[in-house]
Design brief:
The complex is a heterodimer of chains A (about 200) and B (about 150). Chain A is mainly alpha-helical and about 200 residues long. Helices cover about 75% and strands about 0% of the residues of chain A. Chain A contains nine helices and no strands. In chain B, strand 1 and strand 2 (about 125-130) form a beta hairpin. The chains are: A mainly alpha (about 200), B mainly alpha (about 150).
Chain lengths: ~200, ~150
């Protein structure tokens, strides 16, 4: 079930499979069509999980090189997009973990807190959105990954489970924990902002 | 938080997704009405979902496609590596061409195309130089003429 404002576009599975098969046979234009179709979404996912633009751009390149090199071995056991997401999400999770970005993101939250009397105060919704983005960045990588895939990319629980190679139960429990943590982080933020 | 709260929270996402069986959903709704903590949690989850879903997708750098293209060009290109028999075929064809080249070169070395210029000098009242030093000269051989022959193809 998808009730989010911007659900993922439903790709034409047959047309995409034909494109993938052409790319497997060595058709560079076909592979170019695939990466042009997915590069923005891979970048967005990498950015949300890894936390900065340059890292996300590097990750996006690396993901497509990996896909390009492993494409001949792809046997359509899942949809191409699911495989691509699996590679992208795991790559971003590994990168974010390796670089211990979590600590730096906490510092960024502190920096990004609005001043006591901003010259142009944001609207209530924009302010809430900014606080949520900062809190999202402060989540652990595992919690952030399920949140990004569920709410920003609109994947179903089943798709997230397949992408991250987890059980559906684990996906749901991580997502619940993510909500609880976001709530605490945002409440703390409001209390500190009121001081 | 009591045991009912714990059960409610286990099903919270399905409740918010409206994915619970109608009968179970009614029980959950009754708990939400009676428990301020769980009601607050439901409200928070709904707000977070609405906000997260409305966040704009971060724009990719304008040169991302070019960066991917460059990275692909420098990749191992496993996807487009020629099949083994093709590689062997190409190697065999190259070997044949090299062999033909060598044979052609060798044949040119063995039988160079020559233009022969016989140099002779008129001697005053003594005939010619060749007539004097090679009186039997009628059909000069290459060996006899070697000192006097220039080859255009050394």
């Amino acid at each position: 079930m998808s009730q989010f404002p911007e659900p993922r576009e439903a790709p034409d599975a047959a047309a995409e499979e034909a494109l993938v098969r052409r790319a497997q046979a060595g058709d560079r234009d076909a592979f170019r069509s695939l990466y042009q179709k997915y590069q923005d979404r891979v970048f967005a996912t990498a950015y949300r999980i890894a936390g900065d633009r340059e890292t996300a751009a590097d990750l996006t390149q690396e993901v497509f090189v990996k896909i390009f090199e492993e494409l001949p071995g792809f046997r359509f056991g899942s949809r191409f997009s699911t495989w691509l997401y699996r590679v992208a999400a795991n790559h971003a999770i590994n990168k974010a973990s390796e670089t211990a970005r979590h600590a730096r993101l906490n510092e960024r939250i502190a920096r990004e807190r609005p001043a006591a009397a901003p010259a142009d105060p944001p609207s209530r919704d924009r302010f809430a959105g900014e606080r949520l983005q900062a809190a999202l960045a402060a989540l652990s990588v595992k919690l952030r990954a399920v949140t990004v895939l569920r709410y920003l990319e609109g994947l179903s629980y089943e798709e997230i489970a397949e992408t991250l190679e987890l059980s559906i139960g684990t996906v749901k429990s991580r997502l619940f924990l993510a909500h609880a943590t976001l709530r605490e982080l945002m409440d703390d933020d409001v209390k500190e902002g009121d001081r | 938080m009591n045991a009912t709260c714990a059960i409610f929270r286990e099903s919270l996402l399905d409740y918010v997704d409206e994915a619970l069986h109608p009968a179970v959903r009614e029980v959950a709704r009754a708990h939400e009405r009676s428990c301020a903590d769980c009601a607050g949690l439901v409200r928070s989850v709904r707000e977070q979902r609405a906000l997260l879903s409305s966040l704009p997708r971060p724009a990719a750098p304008g040169n991302l496609g070019a960066r991917i293209e460059r990275a692909l060009a420098n990749s191992r290109r496993a996807a487009f590596r020629p099949r083994r028999w093709t590689a062997w075929g190409a190697a065999a064809a190259a070997a044949v061409l090299v062999a033909i080249g060598l044979m052609a070169g060798a044949s040119r070395l063995r039988a160079p195309e020559r233009s022969i210029t016989v140099v002779d000098v008129e001697l005053p009242d003594r005939g010619t130089l060749l007539g004097r030093f090679a009186p039997s000269y009628e059909n000069p051989s290459a060996s006899l003429l070697d000192p006097l022959v220039s080859s255009e193809n050394p």
